[in-house]
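Q: What changes when S-adenosylmethionine is included in the input?
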Amino acid sequence: MGDTVGDASGDAAAAHVPVMLDRIVELLSPALERPGAVFVDGTLGLGGHSEAMLTAHPGLRLVGVDRDTTALDRSRRRLAPFAGRVDFAHAEYDDIPRVLDDLGITEVQGVLLDLGVSSPQLDEAERGFAYSYDAPLDMRMDRTQELTAADVVNTYSAAELARILRDYGEERFAARIAHTIVRERIRHRIDSTRLLADLVRESIPAATRRTGGNPAKRTFQALRIEVNAELAILERTLPAAIGRLAVGGRIAVLSYHSLEDRLTKRALAALATDTTPPDLPVPLPDAQPELRLLTRGAEQPSADESEGNPRAASARLRAAERVRAARGRVGRRTHP
Ligand SMILES: C[S@@+](CC[C@H](N)C(=O)[O-])C[C@H]1O[C@@H](n2cnc3c(N)ncnc32)[C@H](O)[C@@H]1O
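A: The predicted holo structure follows.
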């Protein structure tokens, strides 16, 4: 699990340090150096990875997507020197196909998904992601969305809360925490990060409290995933984004907890496998792998990087290249 989720210990003014930057540039560059290449950054954030790609590839066009309008405003300023080559979109990353359609782009040479929260989202107290600040319990990456963490905590049933804490936080004491929340909210609405963190602490056996970092870490991660529907959206996004990769195009995905990494691993593996039924004597052309995996297992940041940027420590990187047209499109033209 991401061991820095909800930890607001960083400098509030600090920029987001792009994770595994050199390796991602190296992995995507063979596809992005082609003339007329288009790169989709589905998690633009502060534009750190995108800035490096635009700098490395002077002909590259970027489509930068983020659900957070504050992040988009910041990356717009940062990427101003590349203005003629960049389009910005306020959208969820599962909307990448629609964003590309709107721009008249059929296929792209690169996609990056750097999942999770950005440093400003964590460090700015009022965003309500961090257990170490006292702030409104918000956690929306997209502040135009209605559902907040306070809504989840104050309206979901004990069973739903326990399921979320277990499934998304891998929290051992999910039922106890859910019970404490439901008991407490009868008396008053739970609407601050501090109050929630205190309730979690109170629900956990004293012996456990003394080990393993802040006991609220898993609860905060779970709520963040629920509020932002992170796993459901990611599951839809991977095939949709990969579907727009040109042959030779590459995708890289950076995950920060095991749930995201598992989804990514499965989605890439499913398309990197020959699905010819084992009882057939010859491989079916339409069942041949669409993708070639570029990473052996999940790659991790170096010890130096993790030491210099603790938020990188839990990162897992997977990448793949499209080696043939999408199944079902084999033998057909991919352009109209
Ligand atoms: C870890 S940050 C990306 C940082 C970026 N790579 C950089 O170098 O500055 C993740 C970003 O993805 C955005 N994000 C998370 N889930 C999203 C989704 N479903 N759709 C679009 N953007 C999303 C967040 O708002 C955040 O700005």
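Observations recorded in class: The first strand starts at residue 38 and ends at 41.
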